[in-house]
Amino acid sequence: QQSSPGQTEFYQAVEEVLEVLSPVLDTDPRYRSEGVVERLLEPERQILFRVAWVDDKGAVQVNKGYRVQFNSALGPYKGGLRFHPSVNSGIIKFLGFEQIFKNALTGLPLGGAKGGSDFNPKGRTQGEVMRFCQAFMTALYRHIGATMDVPAGDIGVGHREIGYLYGQYRRLSGRFEGVLTGKSTDWGGSLGRKEATGYGCVYFAENMLAEKGETLEGKRCLVSGAGNVALYTMEKLVELGAKPITCSDSTGTLIHRSGLDVPLLKNIKERNRDRLASYLDDHRDAFFVRAEDYDDGRLPVWLEKADLAFPCATQNELLGPDAEALLANGIRCVSEGANMPCSRDAISLFLRAGISYGPGKAANAGGVAVSQLEMQQNAAMARWPAEQVDRTLRSIMSGIHRDASETAMEFGAPGNLVLGANIAGFRRVADAMIDQGVF
Ligand code: NDP
């Protein structure tokens, strides 16, 4: 921590992994003698760059750009780009580190990376977002490639941003290739990619519930966030007979106890890019708590009574006291759509209470898995039908759950998917690093 100060989220992610690794390190002496853990903790390459662009008023704006290429033992670097004012190198490093294990768990040939910028797309015009994306890609394009590093979206980077980033890559390189995923399905994107993280997170919950002989049917669900992951988590929940009753964004929390109207929410957030509170215009029995009215800053989502919880907004949005409130209200399963949304004390409370808890690196791996299916389609110049993508996603999510669950059993901690997912991911990467020699 002394050599890289101020990277709180990165240390939090590392501690979660290291805490459960000691039993697996004893299973093969080479994990220690070949310095696998020490090498894993240091990114293979970190690219930091200036992004200078001109806003609508003609003023020059300067942002920071990041790409952390963490580990490529299993395949080309893969991981999203986040555009949010909170982005710093500690956040990008935590996300890149998590991505190594998540990608390994999919069983697909994928290395781990993450990138982004402290640029805030909110309140910016279409032209400003385009010019920012063009400037960002002008700096990044020489470091990425279809078999080298393939970024995707994350917070603040959706279809629109991927389009501008891809256009600039093509303009600079002269190549139409699968260098980004999450592209529009009109020009190289995969059907089902937009939905994949949310759908996958629900499939993962379905697997956790099945282990206890339960189904999603009739379950009341708490969802946080109202972006890409949250919307498609809610959509799949409704399709499988469950009832999402909350969602949130940075302006506040929406609660509709008789069940959220997901098509309306998609219209508000995806098509109109409108305020979450405008939902009340159509549903008078719902209510909205503004962020400035939160009690002690606590997200009201976790105070509702429900069966299942799906944190789908951002890191550290569900803390110890929230976990206590959820457990007191009878929560039975938590499936993480976001990356590291639960703090370490919240996770300990869930594990101690013996409820099903699916860590993000397992539960939200559906997005990157379908990104890899997009890479396969691009490489083959092919296009898969939506049903084939969804079927493959569902089977990958079952595979990840089985892998994490069986590994937890093997190491004497049945039901502990934190331990199972971390060890299963670690083994796959560590073995590849050993095979490929020390560098
Ligand atoms: P979006 O930008 O589409 O949505 C993010 C949502 O969370 C928005 O509703 C946003 O509100 C809210 N939010 C974000 N940051 C904050 C904050 N600091 N405080 C309050 N609300 C916040 O992003 P995604 O849905 O793509 O990503 C959500 C999470 O899922 C992230 O943790 C991401 O890393 C993870 N993830 C995403 C994948 C993907 O395929 N997209 C894949 C795997 C994980 P507002 O719009 O008001 O800012």
Number of strands: 12
- Over the alpha carbons, how many angstroms does the gyration radius reach? 21 Å
Please give the alpha-carbon distance between the first and last residues: 22 Å
Kindly report the oligomeric state of this protein. Answer: single chain
Mean pLDDT: 97
Number of helices: 15
Counting helices, strands and paired strands, the structural category is: alpha/beta
Walk me through this protein's architecture.
The protein is an alpha/beta fold. Helices cover 45% and strands 16% of the residues. The chain has helices at 8-25, 30-33, 36-41, 89-105, 126-140, 159-173, 193-211, 228-239, 262-271, 320-328, 344-353, 360-363, 366-379, 386-410, 417-435, and strands at 45-54, 60-71, 77-83, 112-117, 149-152, 220-224, 243-249, 252-255, 287-290, 308-311, 333-335, 356-358. A seven-stranded mixed beta sheet has the order 9-8-7-6-10-11-12, with helices on both faces. A five-stranded mixed beta sheet has the order 1-2-4-3-5. The model has no long low-confidence stretch (mean pLDDT 97). The structure holds NADPH dihydro-nicotinamide-adenine-dinucleotide phosphate. NADPH dihydro-nicotinamide-adenine-dinucleotide phosphate is lined by residues 153-156, 158, 197, 225-230, 249-251, 312-314, 337-339, 364, 367.
Provide a short characterization of the protein structure:
The protein has 439 residues and is an alpha/beta fold. The protein contains 15 helices and 12 strands.
